[in-house]
Amino acid sequence: MAGVAALSLAAAPAQADELRDAVTADLPGLIALYEDLHANPELSFQEVETAKKLAARARALGFEVTEGVGKTGVVAVMRNGDGPTVMLRADMDGLPVIEQTGLPYASKRRAVPQSGIETGVMHACGHDTHMAGWVGTAQLLAARRDQWSGTLVMILQPAEEIGEGAKAMLDDGLYTRFPKPDYVLAFHDAAQAPAGMIGYANGFALANVDSVDIVVPGVGGHGAYPHTTKDPVVLASAIVMRLQTLVSRELNPTESAVVTVGSFQAGSKHNIIPDEARLQITVRSYSDAARKLLLDGIARIARGEAVAAGMPDDKMPRVSVADPYTPATFNTAALTQRVAALLAPRFEGRVKEVPAVMGGEDFSQFYRADRDNVESLILWVGGVRAEEWAKAEKGEITLPSLHSPFWAPDAPVVIATATEALTAATLDLMAKP
Ligand SMILES: [Zn+2]
Ligand SMILES: [Zn+2]
User: Could you give the angle at the alpha carbon of 34 between the alpha carbons of 29 and 40, nearest 5°?
Assistant: First the structure.
C-alpha cells in the first residue's frame, strides 16, 4: 500500500481546496495557541490550565463540554442529527524533561512528577501539536455542521505518558456517560519522518508495554568466603542471560518482541556478597499471546535459575508486573483502509503505510474497551523540518527522537496536515446520506 499515493492522480474532490484554504486561514491562530501550550506544559494528571483553556475553546464553538473526566480529562460533544458517533482524541501531558531547543517559546516551567523530585517540564512528545490540531479540527467541523450528520465526541486525554489517562477516562464513564463512539481517531507527531508525511500502520501500530521488577534474594557474606553465601549477583546475572532466550528461542520468529533489562542493582563494596539483587525490565510485544508467553517465561526463568543456584523455597525471586500496563495499539482494517484511501489523493505522495513500532500509546484503550463495536486508527504525522531531514539523509546530523530535550517539530506543517486529515476523515465518516 506504500505506493497508493503515487498511483492516484485523479483530481482532488472539490471540497479539498476549500478545506485546505480554511486550514491555511486558521493556521496563524492555531500556531499562537501551539506556542502558548508549548511554553506552558503540564505533567501527567496535572493538566489543569491546559484543560481549562481548551475546554473554553470547545464551549465557544458550541460543544457541550464536561471537565474533570478521569481527573483532568475533557469531553466535548456536538450532536448533529442521526449518524455515526466519531471520537477524536488529543493527549495533553508534557514530560519531566528540561527543554534545550532554544526556541523563543521554549518552556521554562518546573513541576514535581510522581518521582517527587522537581524537574523542568517540556512538551517533548509533541502533545502540544496534537492539541492544536484538535482545536483546528473542532473549529472546522463546528463551522461545517451542514456537511455532516451524527455525533462528534472530542476528548482531551490526560496522562498518556504514564499510560493511565485513557483508562482513567474510561473508568470515569467515557463510554457510559457520553455517546459511545463507532470510530475513534487520533494522530501522533513523528520524529523519524519528514514534516507533512502521513504514516499509518495496518493492524498493530504500537506495542504492549510491560514493566517488570524482580527482587532476587541471596545470602550475603564475605567476598572471600563465597561458599558460605548464596551470591545474588551471580544468580541475577544468570537470570539476565537466560531471559535473552525468550525472544530468540521461545517466541515464534515471525513475531516481534523485546525483553530489555534496563536496571541491575546489587551490592555496595568489592568484598561483600550482598543479600539481594534487583532487576527492572521492559517487555514489549504485540499480541496478547506473545505478552503472556514472555511474562510467564520471565517468572519461570527467575524461579528456575534460583532452584539451579540452590536457593531454598522461601528465598525464591519475587517477580511483579506493573498494573495497569499499556496495551498494544491496533488500527482496525476497515477504518484504516477507508481513511488511507481517502487521504492518499488529498495528500498526494505524502501518505504511506509504515510498520508498527515498539513504543506504546494508551490510545489502545479506547478500542480495547469494546473491540466488537469500536473501530480505531492512529495516524503518524511527520514533524522533521525539510532542511534537517535532508541533512539527516546525508548522514550529517542525527535526528532527535520523541522525548528528546531537542525535539522541535515543524509545528505549522504538523498542525496543518493533521487538522486537514482529521477533518477530512471525520467529514467522510459522517457524510450526510
Ligand atoms: Zn511520549
Ligand atoms: Zn506521545
Answer: 130
Which residues lie across from 280 on neighbouring strands? Answer: 213, 263
Angle at 303 between CA 299 and CA 305, to 5 degrees: 120
Tell how far the Cα of 188 is from the centroid of ligand 1, in angstroms.
9
DSSP letter (8 states) at residue 384: E
309-326 pLDDT, tens digit each: 999 999 999 999 999 899
DSSP 254: T
Ligand 2 midpoint to CA 20 (Å): 26
- Cα of 91 vs centre of ligand 2, distance in Å, is 7
Output the CA–CA distances (angstroms, integers) from residue 424 to 17, 133, 397, in the order listed.
11, 13, 35
DSSP-assigned states of every residue in 120-189:
E-B--S-HHHHHHHHHHHHHHHHTTGGGB-EEEEEEEE--TTTT-HHHHHHHTTTTTTSPPPSEEEEEEE
User: CA 397, 398, 399: angle at the middle one, nearest 5?
Assistant: 115
The DSSP code for 271 is T
Does the predicted TM-score (pTM) go above 0.85?
A: yes
- CA dist 26 and 56 (Å) reads 18
Half-sphere exposure of 427 (CA within 13 A, CB side): 23
What pLDDT, on a 0 to 100 scale, did the predictor assign at position 115?
Answer: 83
Residue 7 has pLDDT above 60, yes or no: no
Q: From the CA of 238, how far away is ligand 2's center (Å)?
A: 35
In tens, the pLDDT along 249-258 reads 999 999 999 9
Q: Which residue from 220, 348, 245, 346 is spatially nearest to 301, judged by alpha carbons?
A: 245
Grid-cell match 503472556, residue found: 292
Coil/strand/helix, residue 63: coil
